[in-house]
Design goal:
By secondary structure, this protein is α/β, with parallel strands linked by helices. The protein folds into three domains: 138 residues, P-loop containing nucleotide triphosphate hydrolases (Rossmann fold); 71 residues, Orthogonal Bundle (Helicase, Ruva Protein, domain 3), CATH 1.10.8; 90 residues, Zinc Finger, Delta Prime, domain 3. It contains 19 helices and seven strands. Helix 10 packs parallel to helix 12, helix 14 packs antiparallel against helix 17 and helix 16 packs antiparallel against helix 17. The longest helix is centred in the N-terminal third of the chain and has 18 residues.
């Protein structure tokens, strides 16, 4: 059912609609190097086949999964000969180009730059993570979107009616509920929709009806779109962290469930919880870090599937905890001063006195032991003179940090706010 002409291509009207620059370039056979970025089943490989059908250039399909740099060098050598002897361009289509590491991708740079090949790379991963920046800068980045439900229905109807390439020969009927199920669980992926339809047709048999039950059998267990090394990985973990920060336990549980069902390493989830417990909760609820680290230990001790319960406990606790990012801003401020070169020597009264001869050097002289004073606190300087540009730790008024703030005011580390004057 792969489209043979541009008019059969479904979706991506923003880039392939009549009059669009990419379509004009394909029709005029003036395509330059491009990176096709989109989710599975959005039409990247189909678009490459259409380019092959419309060009007078020599078209070479190449898979980064099954071929390596030695095969690539052979293709490049042949492209050079073709250009020199016949003045014919070569379009090299590299499927799953992100499977090449950055060093391997360097092999494309000189031949793309000198025009030996026109590179068309296809990837499901964010090119800014997976493709060399120089290669991106020499190519047009074309972003393909998941197909809409209406577009998937068009594809299903074509396959149902086509007797040569589809399942039209079986004269099948597709129940409304079955159609909706296939569209929903294909999640914008045309290939998944067609595979499900084909499997459902086998189950239904000749002159049968595809019911909701058959459609569900065809899918069995949904393959969640989630590449642990790719763009979806970063997007979903980002949504997870932002849901925790936003104090939405339901959303945080949903995104964690997505990760668990897709096979994410539970240790990764646990590590993010430990970081988040300090980064976005901090001393507003010091127990958050204990809960997170306990969940991380439970993952190691128990493992999945039971550890999902421990993780869920930590997620719900942390999502509902009071929030503060004061510990992050405090260490950032301190590091900023250190990086600016504020590296004065340790004051003598704070230096180590545990070794013989330290007293003769004046180490520890003048140090006041806090436990000898009322309240176990005494005013003395703990920083080298002139190193501190501003207050580092400024507790918020959230949760337990409110008590810490009051304690620091009592000690004089934070100035007490003046009460607002009553207006007469």
């Amino acid at each position: 059912m792969r489209p043979r002409v541009l008019e059969e291509f479904v979706g991506q009207e923003e880039i392939l609609g009549p009059g669009m620059p990419l379509r004009r370039a394909i029709e005029a056979d003036e395509l330059n190097s491009a990176i096709l970025w989109g989710p599975p089943g959005s039409g990247k490989t189909t678009l490459a086949h259409l380019i092959a059908n419309h060009t007078k250039a020599h078209f070479v399909p190449f898979s980064a999964v099954t071929s390596g740099v030695p095969e690539l060098r052979k293709v490049i050598a042949e492209a050079r000969d073709r250009r020199k002897l016949y003045s014919q361009r070569t379009i090299l289509f590299v499927d799953e180009i992100h499977r090449f590491n950055k060093a391997q991708q360097d092999a494309f740079l000189p031949v793309v730059e000198d025009g030996t090949i026109i590179l068309v790379g296809a990837t499901t991963e964010n090119p800014y993570f997976e493709i060399n920046a120089p290669l991106i800068s020499r190519s047009r980045l074309i972003v393909l979107k998941p197909l809409t439900p209406d577009q998937l229905e068009v594809i299903l109807d074509r396959a149902l009616a086509d007797e040569e390439r589809g399942v039209g020969i079986f004269a099948l009927t597709l129940a409304k509920e079955a159609r909706a199920h296939i569209v929903q669980f294909s999640d914008g992926d045309a290939r998944m929709a067609l595979n499900a339809l084909e499997e459902a047709a086998k189950i239904a048999g000749k002159s049968g009806a595809i019911t909701l039950d058959i459609a569900e059998q065809a899918f069995q267990r949904r393959a969640l779109r989630y590449d642990k090394d790719g763009d979806q990985h970063y997007d979903i973990i980002s949504a997870f962290i932002k849901s925790l920060r936003g104090s939405d336990p339901d959303a945080a549980l949903y995104w964690m469930a997505r990760m668990i069902e897709a096979g994410e390493d539970p240790r990764f989830i646990a590590r993010r919880l430990v970081v988040h417990a300090s980064e976005d909760v901090g001393n507003a609820d010091p127990l958050a870090l204990l809960v997170a680290t306990a969940a991380a230990q439970a993952v190691e001790f128990v493992g999945l599937p039971e550890a999902r319960i421990n993780l869920a406990q930590a997620v719900t606790y942390i999502a509902c905890a009071p929030k503060s990012n004061s510990v992050v801003t405090s260490i950032n401020r301190a590091q900023e001063d250190v990086r600016k070169g504020k590296l004065a020597p340790v004051p003598k009264h704070l230096r180590d006195t545990s070794y013989r001869g330290a007293e003769k050097l004046g180490h520890g002289k003048g140090y006041q032991y806090p436990h000898d004073f009322p309240g176990h606190h005494v005013e003395q300087e703990y920083l080298p003179e002139g190193t501190k540009s501003r207050s580092y730790y400024e507790p918020s008024d959230q949760g337990y940090e409110k008590k810490i703030r009051e304690r620091m005011k009592y000690w004089g580390h934070i100035e007490k706010e003046e009460p607002e004057a009553n207006e007469e």
